[in-house]
Amino acid sequence: MSALDEAADVEALDDWRISYLGRRGELTQILRGLGSLPAEERPAAGAAANALRRTLEEAMSSREDALKRAAAESDPVDAIDVTLPGWPVPRGGIHPTTRIVREICAAFASMGFSVVEGPEIEWDHYNFEMLNIPKDHPARDMWDTLWIDYEDENGERPMLLRTHTSPMQARTMEATDPPVRVVVPGKCYRYEATDPRHEWHFYQIEGLAVDRGITMTDLKGTLYEFARRVFGVDRKVRFRCDYFPFVEPGVDMSIDCFLCDGGCRVCSDTGWIEIMGAGMVHPKVLAGVGYDPNIYTGFAFGMGPERISMLKHGIEDIRLFYSNDLRFLRQFS
Ligand code: DAH
Predict the structure, then answer these.
(1) How far is the CA of 328 from the centre of ligand 1 (A)?
(2) Residue with CA closest to ligand 1 atom 6
(3) pLDDT tens, residue by residue, 146-158
(4) Residue 78: pLDDT band by 50, 70, 90 thresholds?
(5) Are 62 and 274 in contact (CB under 8 A)?
(6) Is the peptide bond before 249 cis (omega within 30 degrees of 0)?
(7) Is 282 touching ligand 1 by the criterion CB < 6 Å?
(8) What is the four-CA torsion angle of 57, 63, 65, 68, rounded to 10 degrees?
(9) Fewer CB within 10 Å of terminal CB in the chain, N or C?
(10) In the chain, at which residue ranges do the beta strands (DSSP E only) sit?
């Protein structure tokens, strides 16, 4: 051990190893000589010699570490440069869809709406029938549907991936007595070829307010306030007639284009950008869930949050949201 302590560099250490542990080293000689001992002394002597070898090997390896560390520290090339910048720690961020969904829901929550969620695998019953879209009705063509490969006892396929969040209108009303004020964010699916404006899966945010005495004025005031909160206080809004089977009258809502003065690519030179469908809940929908349409009225609306995010942030292709390209996602973290 004292010879080991005196080994001042790696070469000296190697000499030490050869003279004690090497093939002709002192300890090796002892181990070889064990055979000439009387049989009853051999096990104890063997164990002692092996323990000694382990002790020497461990001492040698820690001496070696110490010598290498000392060499690195005294050599400026290998020494640690504490002035080097560290490695950046990669940081995750919130997905742009999650961000816009939260922002929109927060705007409605501050106006007294609760946030609820529903199933993505849905019955035809809720996705269509309860929304005044009977079987074989041409309005079903508005929603290219992905059907679940499951047949009931009548040989019909009653299950689908919901094509919109509107089924939660009926589910919510069935489960609660009026008044109702909810927004429903969630994923939807369509059997659709994708392009910069269409994805086969995307989010929607549905809204529903039902009570005594709700009128079209409430619809307009609420959605106007929403547009101001999300797109800025200068926004103007426009409502035009549109058709959705579950509302009457139905409208689409546009905001004035905040990118241009009367004409650009985003508003197709019209000065207006359509941001959602809406309307007064159809009496048949109210009656279907057991609400008396002579007492209760309501309004509903539905929008695509990715589309709203695209408008706000000048994003040109909806497919960017779900292609996991970090160059795109990092812009939002
Ligand atoms: N569910 C409709 C769609 O996917 C959007 C919509 C329109 C929702 C009008 C509504 C509404 O609640 O009142 O095209």
Answers:
(1) 29
(2) 302
(3) 999 999 999 999 9
(4) low
(5) no
(6) yes
(7) no
(8) -130
(9) N
(10) 114-115, 121-123, 159-161, 180-189, 201-212, 237-242, 247-256, 272-281, 296-303
Q: Is 182 exposed, middle or buried (0-12, 13-18, 19+ CB in 10 A)?
A: buried
Measured distance CA(152)–CA(157) in Å, rounded: 6
Nearest CA residue ID for atom 12, ligand 1: 301
| Residue from 89, 165, 97 nearest 323 by CA | 97
Residue 229 burial class via C-beta count within 10 angstroms: exposed 0-12, middle 13-18, buried 19 and up:
middle
Each residue of 163-173: pLDDT tens digit?
Answer: 999 999 999 99
Task: Say if residues 186 and 120 touch (Cβ distance below 8 Å).
Answer: yes
Whether 121 has a pLDDT exceeding 70, the answer reads: yes
85: which 2 tokens?
């910048």
- The single residue listed with the structure tokens 């679940």 is 148
HEC letters along 126-140: HHCHHHCCCCCCHHH
